[in-house]
Amino acid sequence: MMKSKYLLYILAGVCVLQAACKRVLESEPQDRLTGDLVFDEMDKNADNAKAFLYGIYAQLPPGYNRTENAYIDNATDDGMASQDGDRTEDFRKGRISPLNVTDNTWGTNYSGIRRANMFLSKIDKVPATAELKRAWKAEARFLRTLFYFELMKRWGGVPLMGDTILKITDNLNFSRSTVEQTKNYILAEIANYKDSLLPANMNDADVGRANKGAALALKARLLLYWASPLYNPDNITQRWTDAANAAQEVTDLGVYTLSADFPGLFITSKTTEMIFAKNGTPNQNVEQYNGPVGYLNAGAGKGLTSPSQELVDAFPMNNGLPITDPLSGYVASKPYEKRDARFEATILYNGKKWLNRSVETFEGGLDKPGGIITQTKTGYYLRKFMGKFESSTAYSNTIRPVILFRYAEVLLNFAEAKNEESGPVKPVYDALGLIRKRAGITGTTYGLPAGITKDSMRSIIQNERRIELAFEEHRHWDIRRWKIAGKVMNAPLSGMKIVKNTDGTFSYTRFAATTSAFDITRMYWYPIPYSEIETNPNMKQNIGWEY
What we know:
18 helices
């Protein structure tokens, strides 16, 4: 682990860089700082350089309640922020503009790219072994490509800096590359560095570092996006083939399997399913931000996340059948019984045991008291990512890595790409079957109907992604790359009004919790921040966001 004196270098560098990331480029003094203090020819163990490399990881996406204390998926049909005026409402209400770019990671990602370039340009000065420097360079290049992918999925084509570290005397007016050029750059980089990374079955001490499995998982996700309708309007089949093959490469490593404990996935530092995650210190943040509001003495939950009725309805019964199927066994008066186990691990609903009592989201209940206090707007709270506090009396610190790549996503990537390439063939059923089996669904096909069409299987796969990856920052991008955001976001988002009857039973009434406005002419891509357009005459704005 990094020693405290090395943390000072990291914090100093991060603070300087973050303060200077108004544009793609930063100023010269940072070069002098890192050159003089970090990449030292006399540092025989290269400890300072290693600390600098580890500091680049700090600029990876932070996950969880990162958008002003809200999940970015609160801007989708999976949920909404409980707090009025939350920034995720800007997406929902169409208030995004070049002057108001919610989820604006432009500066952060380019700052990470610049730090990676700085490391790559200077690491050869330090007296580390050639083998170690080769591995470290691969890590820096992986992080750089991940930063570029984060930019690409928001803005499309972006300026590609290569290995350049610009100074204030250089020409700052870079043009954007195309989406295809950006994709090709990331792919070429992955091909060049993947075999120099740590092995996928790395030691426990290296958890959280870039590894070959992470590089291949990034490639699989990138190619899946590239094959999707937003990027592939002509539906070129070869792109789906490439995406399926890339996902298969991850499986072929023979390292990853699905964890048996779905809730425990997100509160364990290392599992067989985890491919790459951002480490963090144990805390109670997720519970305190999202826990039900009625446990003030025990947990101080703020209830900031309200999952939607649409998401709740997406979870099948424990026999794998959707709740709309007459044979599923769904009973409207007992809507939460006998559901897919992932439902229990994702949603806190009325009657669920939590902190040693039943959650009360009925009107006037402890967790939906009414009045001005922030509380659920849909009748639900988020359970996912929290510790196992069903029978506890208070929250306690919990290990909570931010999982950026896990094997279940790879299986879903494969199933989607293979279905688009070849239809619902056996490998598609097999991949989905592994995930559904882990969810406790039984039967030879795990509730998946036989003999269906490609279109029907597509709907099943899209729903499976929705429930398996809920609130992991996939839905926000999935509805865009599938080009269905115009449909799902321009429909009301629903909640469930629950009334406790005098006999102790409950009545359930669906209601529209909020409305949305998604402009299909421009909102599939983010606007380039106005500061970049204003200061760079070569920076072209995305279509529909021009003034």
